[in-house]
Amino acid sequence: MLILDGGPALTAFKLERVAARVRHARYPLVDLSAYFFYLVDVERKLDQATLEVLENLLDASDSSASFPSRFKDAVAITPRSGTRSPWSTKATEIAHHCGLDSVRRVERGVIWQFGNVGQNVQTDAEIIDILHDKMIESVATNFEALLEIFENRSPGAPEFIDLIGGGIEALKKANEIQGFALTDQECGYLYDSFLALGRNPTDTELMMFAQVNSEHCRHKIFNASWMIDQKAETRSLFGMIRQTHAENGAKTLVAYADNAAVIKSYPASWFLPRPDSAEYAQITEPLHMVLKVETHNHPTAISPFPGAATGSGGEIRDEGATGRGGKPKAGVTGFSVSNLRVPGLPMSWELGEQSPSRIALPLQIMLEAPVGAASFNNEFGRPNIAGYFRTLETLTEQGVTNHRYGYHKPIMIAGGMGNIREQHVKKQKIQPGAYLVVLGGPAMLIGLGGGAASSVDSGESNERLDFTSVQRGNAEMQRRCQEVIDRCISLGDSNPIVSIHDVGAGGLSNALPELVSDAGLGAKINLDKIPSDDSSLSPMQLWCNEAQERYVLAIAPQNIDRFREICVRERCLFSVVGEATESLQLQLVKNGDAGDLVDTQENPVDLPMSLLFGNTPRMHREVRSHSPTFQSNYFDDVDTVDALDRVLRLPVVADKTFLITIGDRSVGGQIARDQMVGPWQVPVADAGITTAGFDSPSGEAIAIGERAPLALIDPIASGQMAVAEAIMNIASAGIAELSDVHLCANWMAAAGEPGQDAALFETVEAVATKLCPALGISIPVGKDSMSMTSRWHHDGEEFSVRSPLSLVITAFAPVADVRRSVTPELDLSEKSVLLFLDLAQGRNRLGGSALAQVYGQVGTETPDVVDPSDLVSFFSVSRHLLAEGQMTAYHDRSDGGLVMTLLEMAFASRCSLEIDLGDQDEPLAALFSEELGAVLQVRDADLEDVMRAFDADNLRDRVRVIGYPVEGGDVVRISAGNTVLIDRARSEMHSTWSELTAKLQSLRDEPTSAFAEHNRIKDLSDPGLHASLTFNLRQNPATQAILSGTRPQVAILREQGVNGHMEMAAAFDRGGFRAIDVTMSDLKEGRQDLQEFQGLVACGGFSYGDVLGAGMGWAKSILFEPTMRAMFAEFFVRHDTFALGICNGCQMIAGLKDLVPGADHWPRFSENFSGQFESRVIMVEIIDSDSILFDGMQGSRMPVVVAHGEGRAEFSGEDDLSRLKANSQWALRYVDNHGHPTERFPFNPNGSPSGVAGLCAADGRVNIMMPHPERNFRTITNSWHPKDWGEHGPWLRIFQNARKFIG
Question: Do 573 and 550 touch, CB atoms closer than 8 A?
């Protein structure tokens, strides 16, 4: 075993963060440092040349001889002994691609040194607990412990639970120890079933049954029978929800029958590589919508980053595993937590901290979980374009300090939408003999029992089992799986996938039985064929673990070779683990022989499918209603200025930039509306909107509605307002009619708590049987989480925190024309008025409002949907106004009330407002009530027509003029008749609104960056994003070349983990090229050769998950592989070719600079100065250079998206940049909104010196840049753009210039 020393494991400010955590835990700390080291398992001793390649690859030096002495004042953190980390898998693959065949495996660890090691054994252990993840990491306090890393351990043996000898008590004991979460009914059912079989169950069978039949997987409460207040109910919860589909399901293709719902959408064009030629092409056919929203509450409470990451990853798999394969497109993320208690930012309404040690504090959750969710979405390549964030923690109505309402067990929402081809909407029927395939990552001992753990209240299960239940993510592996699915999708009718299911709760023990059960079949599975990276796993652990990034598929035998070819090309792991059987028996064989079972005692599972799925007991709920008795709201002594300042700081109202910029919102090149709005990119959008393809104005919309605090008083009102809010939000999109809108309902409840079950039933009944039918919409998909209570004991006292009934509604709809959508940004180019639409008919109820929350109140009377027909009518009127272009801005009234609706519009537009609400008996309520309503901007010239439209739909009495915007000012004045309620500087209130996001960013990221971003609000001269072009947008310099009739080939090159190839191909296709899908495996295995291409483009993403440095693993797999090195070198020297590297491709081609003539002074790219992934729209300036791509564009300034974590250019020589400038090789630089070159964050998103953003080689043919122009070549995919741009934005010019260059 070799040991190599690496560089620092953390930047200085991140190391200080860890030290602060240790100090916060009140442990003494001296001199903390952290460095990487690498363990290398080799087949034989490496010669010097090979060792030098390895050292170069790892950027490390051999320290095998000296390393053992380091342990006298240090500890080493490594992957858990007996397991293999995802980092190792990818690093080892890179090593093999570099010709290091004698390297069996590479692992990475961190050696931590802190001066007081060994002084106090208990203190050392507690500090070490902070420094490592017990689930997947081991601690080595001596060198000998490192030798265990590469040991293969013997697998554990199956265990039997002695029911025959020990009776049902033996099962109940196992239930408690193993955390099965079986009910007494289920224990009795299993006891009787195994007695009938005449044998004892294995631990594998019991764990499988527990996961398959957990509340998490089987939704037992939603399928239960009910008796409420001694009255038997005839319907189940799920039955009532299904009724919405029965009544209004005409536009739904799949509901309740797959991993996600599918709804009809508009014809557009799929953009896919042809199976025969690999050329990307448009395929005109419907892009039906796939819808799903999941929760991952329990894992996020226990371990926030991986819990949220795998929540997002699991939902993505649901979309991909719909029908015979779907394509995920865009996502949403949401969080509800208890009070944050942010250090240095006290909130007067926050209660003192009470929390169990076994779950993360709310602040930790919100600093880590959003990054986890974002990181998975980013690496997979799915933009996150909507979400929500709420905090709530209040005493119960009894006022007892120990018992509260709140979200100690958080809500973590992960949802999204995708597309599916018409012929793939329905799964085919699996035939006996079909191969059962596991696609994706290997098994590991993570996420064991997650389905059961998520089904019980926090504090009810064993703490060890809680932690064991949390999964860990590997997004790059899931990206590979999706590429396999995408290739199968492109085959159309020849798709080899018969049926597909994601692997989630319960692991393979749930996924494979479900796959065959749906077809009325059994299965025989060979345990030894299941890929595993942990040789110590017992059969139960191997079968039931929830290791992520896996799918199970049924493939007909005659198609397995085609499927294998696809997997090999995508370098995606897969294994045929068994086959479907006509016999309705589930058999799990562990002896490597797939023949008939000889001795059941040697095999972990041999069960009738009916025992697992067929006759399990139905839950029955007998519950009573309970009406809360909170005190009435009292605001007589409240000052309006104080109230506004408090509400501006409340997290549900405040600026959420810290949640948004960490997530890529442009990947895929089909985002028409993300959260950020206007020239100053303020996060106030009502909905997220995507385009259906790359050549159509149609698209899809997604929006969230959530009003949980109302449920403290009136659960029914809370549920109805969630539905209404989602509809009011999605009304901003160019949807044709309300019946196009479909809902996903995520229900969270503290089941078993007084009154909560009855409240759940009554709310489902109101929403599903009354409101939705009145609106003419359905709920074809949803999820429930019924264990929203945290309980614990401290010093002999009992504590509890339970959530209110929480319904999170996500609305989805196809969009007829995304160009007809509106945002809260006000149009200041013409005189206009602001209309207030009041769907509450004058009511201003304050119960459960933000105003009540910031004064420690709840209240007794809440907003509600007064008349559903008014909502239907408004949706109809707003369709007319959008179609006629008569509604120029729009924002709904929600959290914070009408005052926040107006202020957010002003913040997005940087203007003044003059508002008069008219005489008000209760002006505070008029400002802050959160009744249903909206503010619309209408041009003066259109006002009469608009009023006639409202009158035609009987809404004239619901709408009135309340004021107008004033361009360029900094004052918001709101009056009620002759009484001035607010007269303040807009920028001052905007700054207050953004305090929270700045503080949380400073606690999470490099702090000076966070404060620099906050300070920009005070710059009233900031003109915002703008475009100043030196070329004619409507001229195409490639026209003559295109008229020649030829379409030269450009290689759209991708390595495993790259995710930006579709939009790159679309941009070059639009520019006049034949865009060809080329993988690195194509080049290495001779299926393609760069000599056949005129252009080469290295795309963005996370090649190898950015292992060994962003883009550098990809680069070194070329540099150290002779055939690849020669192929790329020959391409770069050809004078008839061009090359482009963007983002990850920029980092990769920069790593190849030794092969690129005239690239000697290029930099490498390191972590952003902020220490965070940054996704932003920023300004760049095109500099006069030799770049063939920027020809004729010099001097232009315009917006572009960036999305990267390692974009900071680091030059090895002090004069490298000046030489590049002198040689006309500096092509692109970041500028601030005034047009000045900048290193200031966030205008410069990564801290690159002098704002360098793009470079070219000496003759201008080879270009690299970190921004993403390929995502903005269509005008409608720019978050902000001037109104006079046509179909194409200015960034199409670089692709046209490439075509002109080829000739």
Answer: no
